[in-house]
Design goal:
Elements lengths: L21 H8 L7 E2 L11 H8 L13 H11 L6 E4 L1 H13 L5 E6 L4 H8 L3 E6 L1 E5 L2 E5 L2 H8 L4 E5 L11 H8 L4 E5 L21 E6 L12 E4 L2 H10 L7 H10 L3 H28 L2 E3 L6 E6 L3 H12 L2 E2 L1 E2 L8 E5 L3 H15 L4
Parallel strand pairs: 1-13, 3-4, 3-7, 7-8, 8-9
Antiparallel strand pairs: 2-10, 5-6, 9-10, 11-12, 12-15, 14-15
Helix pairs in contact: 2-9, 3-9, 4-5, 10-12
């Protein structure tokens, strides 16, 4: 039998590992799914919006293909963002747009530039498409109870001049830091494509950079309905960009990339008054959680807290052994957090912001662990 070989660049592909389904975890722990506190995927902790449940329950004509351009949703986004519809494209999550931009504007001889650490799909999709990804390492700075990653902006700008596409997550994942608008404008002044991933912008204390699209022909802003709107399971995102770029992406995307359920749900979610209320609650819970972490850190002093403008908080520990053991401790209690096995992140754990009672449970178990009660 002849074995068909894959293309060469996929032989060294590092698989992107998603989160494990809750029913499998519940089986492993022998507990009900309802007892699991899921804080590993930066997902919205609230129940689905009532408007979303209503529209999904009344879906009809699902035997028909969806609108390939998501026209009604585009109009709703344009109204909310105060942007022309021909500057907007709807996608199956923002991940689809990351890949489409690479396919359309980068060849194997080009370089995609990003920082490290950042959203793992950038390096993964670069590998999938056989494109070189250069990630500029950020320096970890510890100050008192807190830690932060700092980027050598001059070095990054120098590298950017030899790149085809630059990806910046703002706020950054996994630490929640926001780079300055001035730095992005310096990047956008270069003859390269600049892509800003704003998946968590609703939780930040800064404005979206979508307002700059009319000023730069090479600037793309990515958004998602997965986080603030709680539609992660329906996979709906969108991009705001110059019409020339949008036209190219529309011409190469899958025709029916966003299903009817996703389009309808996002359409009603974007005008729901509950969204902003829940965002404010999550921001207050984040503030509470950081305050509680600070109190624990003042006593134990073996970890540092990253100030975050997103719906998660990153913790850096003295050694990689501590977060690995803490991850296992949390897991045994039905608390799911994000553990990193890669060398550059093995000293860290990322904890999504859940409901207030969820974060109280995390603090309680963290104290128990650090006091040797594990």
């Amino acid at each position: 039998m002849v074995k068909i070989k894959t293309v060469e660049h996929l032989n060294s592909l590092e698989r992107y590992i998603g989160v494990k389904p809750l029913n499998i975890i519940a089986g492993e722990l022998n507990i009900p799914v309802s007892n699991i506190i899921k804080l590993d995927g930066n997902e919205n902790p609230y129940e689905p919006l009532p408007e979303v449940l209503s529209v999904l329950n009344s879906l009809k004509n699902i035997s028909h293909y969806p609108d390939p351009l998501s026209s009604d949703l585009v109009e709703a986004i344009a109204k909310k963002e105060n942007i022309e519809p021909n500057n907007i494209i709807v996608s199956s999550g923002s991940d689809e747009l990351i890949e489409l931009l690479m396919k359309a504007y980068a060849s194997p001889s080009d370089t995609v530039l990003s920082v490290s650490p950042t959203f793992g799909m950038i390096s993964f999709l670069s590998q999938v498409n056989g494109i070189k990804n250069t990630a500029i390492s950020q320096r970890l700075v510890k100050e008192g109870s807190f830690a932060r990653y700092t980027l050598d902006e001059d070095r990054f700008l120098k590298e950017a001049k030899d790149s085809k596409i630059v990806f910046i997550a703002r706020p950054n994942n996994p630490d929640g830091k926001v780079v300055s608008e001035e730095f992005i404008e310096r990047l956008a002044s270069l003859p390269i494509m600049v892509v800003i991933d704003e998946a968590y912008i609703e939780f930040a204390n800064c404005q979206s950079l979508a307002k700059l699209i009319s000023q730069y022909e090479n600037l793309v802003v990515l958004r998602t309905f997965s986080k603030a709107y709680g539609l992660g399971g329906l996979r709906v995102g969108y991009g705001i960009m110059p019409n020339d770029i949008r036209t190219v992406l529309v011409s190469i995307k899958q025709p029916y990339n966003v299903n009817i359920a996703g389009q309808k749900a996002a359409f009603v979610a974007i005008t729901s008054p509950l969204v902003e209320q829940r965002i404010e609650k999550m921001k207050k819970t984040r503030e509470f959680f950081v305050g509680q972490l600070k109190a624990v850190q003042d006593e134990c002093k073996n970890f540092w807290i990253h100030p975050s403008e997103a719906c998660y908080v990153l913790l850096t520990f003295d050694s990689p052994e501590i977060p690995k053991k803490l991850y296992n401790h949390f897991y045994s209690k039905g608390i799911l957090v994000r553990y990193y096995s890669t060398p550059d992140m093995s000293n860290n754990l990322r904890i999504s912001i859940g409901l207030q009672e969820d974060m109280e449970k995390v603090i309680s178990e963290l104290k128990l662990f650090l006091k040797g009660g594990n």
